[in-house]
Amino acid sequence: MKTVGLRDMNQHFSRHMKAVREGDELLITDRGKPVAILRPVRKDDDIEERLSRLEVAGALTRSSVPGKVGRHPRIVLSGDPLSETVSQMRDERGSL
Question: Which domain holds residue 35?
Protein backbone atom coordinates (compact mmCIF):
# COMPACT_ATOMS: atom_id res chain seq x y z
CA MET A 1 0.00 0.00 0.00
CA LYS A 2 1.40 3.36 -1.05
CA THR A 3 1.40 6.26 1.44
CA VAL A 4 0.39 9.68 0.15
CA GLY A 5 0.37 12.94 2.08
CA LEU A 6 -2.82 14.99 2.05
CA ARG A 7 -1.11 17.89 0.30
CA ASP A 8 0.27 15.63 -2.43
CA MET A 9 -3.15 14.01 -2.77
CA ASN A 10 -4.74 17.42 -3.34
CA GLN A 11 -2.11 18.57 -5.80
CA HIS A 12 -2.01 15.36 -7.83
CA PHE A 13 -5.53 14.02 -7.36
CA SER A 14 -5.97 12.81 -10.95
CA ARG A 15 -2.70 10.88 -10.92
CA HIS A 16 -3.57 9.17 -7.63
CA MET A 17 -7.11 8.35 -8.80
CA LYS A 18 -5.65 6.75 -11.93
CA ALA A 19 -3.50 4.53 -9.70
CA VAL A 20 -6.55 3.58 -7.62
CA ARG A 21 -8.53 2.74 -10.78
CA GLU A 22 -5.66 0.46 -11.78
CA GLY A 23 -5.97 -1.41 -8.46
CA ASP A 24 -3.60 0.38 -6.07
CA GLU A 25 -4.58 1.17 -2.50
CA LEU A 26 -3.46 4.46 -0.95
CA LEU A 27 -2.95 5.31 2.70
CA ILE A 28 -3.62 9.05 2.98
CA THR A 29 -1.84 10.85 5.80
CA ASP A 30 -2.10 14.30 7.31
CA ARG A 31 1.21 15.42 8.80
CA GLY A 32 2.34 11.82 9.00
CA LYS A 33 -0.81 10.51 10.71
CA PRO A 34 -3.04 8.10 8.79
CA VAL A 35 -6.50 9.55 8.05
CA ALA A 36 -7.96 7.37 5.28
CA ILE A 37 -7.45 4.44 2.99
CA LEU A 38 -8.50 4.88 -0.63
CA ARG A 39 -9.04 1.71 -2.57
CA PRO A 40 -10.93 0.71 -5.70
CA VAL A 41 -14.44 -0.66 -5.41
CA ARG A 42 -14.23 -4.31 -6.17
CA LYS A 43 -16.84 -6.18 -8.19
CA ASP A 44 -17.58 -8.39 -5.19
CA ASP A 45 -18.26 -5.36 -2.93
CA ASP A 46 -21.94 -5.19 -2.05
CA ILE A 47 -22.64 -1.46 -2.16
CA GLU A 48 -26.20 -1.88 -0.86
CA GLU A 49 -24.93 -3.80 2.17
CA ARG A 50 -22.35 -1.09 2.92
CA LEU A 51 -24.93 1.67 2.55
CA SER A 52 -27.30 -0.19 4.87
CA ARG A 53 -24.58 -0.50 7.53
CA LEU A 54 -23.82 3.23 7.27
CA GLU A 55 -27.53 4.02 7.52
CA VAL A 56 -27.93 1.86 10.64
CA ALA A 57 -24.88 3.53 12.18
CA GLY A 58 -26.44 6.94 11.54
CA ALA A 59 -23.67 8.03 9.18
CA LEU A 60 -26.06 8.65 6.29
CA THR A 61 -29.72 9.07 5.48
CA ARG A 62 -30.97 7.76 2.19
CA SER A 63 -33.05 9.91 -0.10
CA SER A 64 -36.78 9.15 -0.16
CA VAL A 65 -36.67 9.47 -3.96
CA PRO A 66 -34.03 7.26 -5.60
CA GLY A 67 -31.57 9.26 -7.66
CA LYS A 68 -32.57 12.56 -6.06
CA VAL A 69 -30.67 14.47 -3.40
CA GLY A 70 -32.98 15.89 -0.77
CA ARG A 71 -32.90 19.53 0.19
CA HIS A 72 -32.89 20.74 3.74
CA PRO A 73 -35.66 23.13 4.75
CA ARG A 74 -34.81 26.82 4.46
CA ILE A 75 -33.97 28.48 7.77
CA VAL A 76 -35.50 31.91 8.22
CA LEU A 77 -33.76 34.21 10.69
CA SER A 78 -35.26 37.28 12.28
CA GLY A 79 -33.60 40.66 12.76
CA ASP A 80 -31.87 43.15 10.52
CA PRO A 81 -30.17 41.94 7.35
CA LEU A 82 -26.48 41.21 7.81
CA SER A 83 -25.51 43.87 5.25
CA GLU A 84 -27.23 46.57 7.35
CA THR A 85 -25.53 45.38 10.52
CA VAL A 86 -22.10 45.47 8.85
CA SER A 87 -22.77 48.97 7.47
CA GLN A 88 -23.77 50.22 10.93
CA MET A 89 -20.64 48.71 12.48
CA ARG A 90 -18.46 50.38 9.84
CA ASP A 91 -20.18 53.74 10.42
CA GLU A 92 -19.64 53.44 14.17
CA ARG A 93 -15.98 52.58 13.68
CA GLY A 94 -15.53 55.52 11.34
CA SER A 95 -16.94 57.98 13.87
CA LEU A 96 -14.43 57.01 16.59
Answer: 2-42
CA distances from 68 to 1, 16, 87 (A): 35, 29, 40
Residue 19 belongs to domain with CATH number: 3.40.1620.10
> 54-92: string of b/e by CB count within 10 Å (b at 16+)?
eeeeeeeeeeeeeeeeeeeeeeeeeeeeeeeeeeeeeee
Q: What are phi and psi of 28, to 5 degrees?
A: -95, 130
Q: Determine the Cα–Cα distance for residues 2 and 35; give it in Å rounded to an integer.
A: 14
pLDDT tens for each residue of 2-14: 999 999 999 999 9
Q: Are the C-beta atoms of 23 and 1 separated by less than 8 Å?
A: no
**pTM for this structure?**
0.47
Asked, for residue 25, whether it belongs to a domain, the answer is: yes
